[in-house]
């Protein structure tokens, strides 16, 4: 594997994975696909931070236009399953983009955050990779979390305080 698509959930979370993948000698392309972000201004803040990181690190960054309707349909089930449905929805876009670009595989910066459901993310990524006939590159990026936080502060990146969906925002505000 040489050419990898990195799903960028946000700028701060992408720092560690990008450094790790490049240290492994991989060619990395970023892809911002996050229809879950609410409200729309939050999407804009996180996209701006991802673009700022991409510029600072010389990372090509593709951006998917959010499909809010498709996302809402995907996560409208039972609350315990919403996070898994969200991961599946976003990573399905990433796997499809990997196939479209004919890259060797993909991974996600969601695997960097200690606040995400790590096993659910990995399971959703494997599932979507199989469905699209592409490889999923699993890495536990969490050990680099502290360094990512420090670097994001150095770069002045926006650092969010909730996962992104309106449910996580409501939980934070409670």
Structural class by SSE content? alpha/beta
Low-pLDDT windows of residues: none
For the termini, the CA-CA separation is 44 Å
Helix proportion range:
40-55%
Strand order of the largest sheet: 3-2-1-4
Describe this protein's structure.
The protein has 174 residues and is α/β, with parallel strands linked by helices. The chain contains 7 helices and 4 strands, in the order βαβαβααβααα. It has helices at residues 11-23, 40-57, 68-74, 82-101, 118-132, 145-155, 166-173, and strands at 3-7, 27-32, 61-63, 105-108. The protein has a 4-stranded parallel sheet, with helices on both faces. Strand 1, helix 1 and strand 2 form a beta-alpha-beta unit. Helix 1 packs parallel to helix 2 (40-57), helix 1 packs across helix 6 and helix 4 (82-101) crosses helix 5 (118-132). The protein is globular and about 40 Å long. It starts with a strand and ends with a helix. The model has no long low-confidence stretch (mean pLDDT 94).
Short overview:
The protein is an alpha/beta fold and 174 residues long.
Give the SSE layout.
Blueprint (H helix, E strand, L loop, with lengths): L2 E5 L3 H13 L3 E6 L7 H18 L3 E3 L4 H7 L7 H20 L3 E4 L9 H15 L12 H11 L10 H8 L1
Parallel strand pairs: 1-2, 1-4, 2-3
List keywords for this structure.
globular, four-stranded parallel β-sheet, 4 strands, alpha/beta, 174 residues, 10% strand, 7 helices
């Amino acid at each position: 594997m040489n050419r990898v698509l990195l799903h960028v959930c946000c700028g701060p979370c992408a720092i560690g994975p990008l450094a790790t993948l490049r240290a492994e000698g991989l060619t990395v392309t970023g892809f911002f696909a996050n229809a879950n972000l609410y409200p729309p201004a939050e999407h804009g803040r996180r996209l701006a931070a991802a673009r700022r990181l991409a510029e600072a690190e010389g990372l090509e960054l593709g951006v998917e236009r959010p499909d809010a309707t498709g996302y809402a349909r995907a996560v409208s089930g039972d609350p315990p399953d919403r996070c898994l449905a969200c991961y599946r929805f976003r990573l399905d876009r990433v796997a499809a983009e990997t196939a479209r670009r004919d890259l060797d595989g993909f991974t996600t910066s969601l695997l960097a955050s200690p606040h995400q459901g790590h096993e659910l993310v990995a399971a959703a990524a494997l599932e979507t990779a199989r469905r699209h006939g592409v490889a999923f590159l699993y890495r536990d990026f969490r050990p680099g979390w502290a360094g990512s936080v420090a670097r994001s502060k150095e770069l002045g990146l926006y650092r969010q305080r909730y996962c992104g969906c309106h449910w996580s925002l409501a939980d934070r505000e409670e």
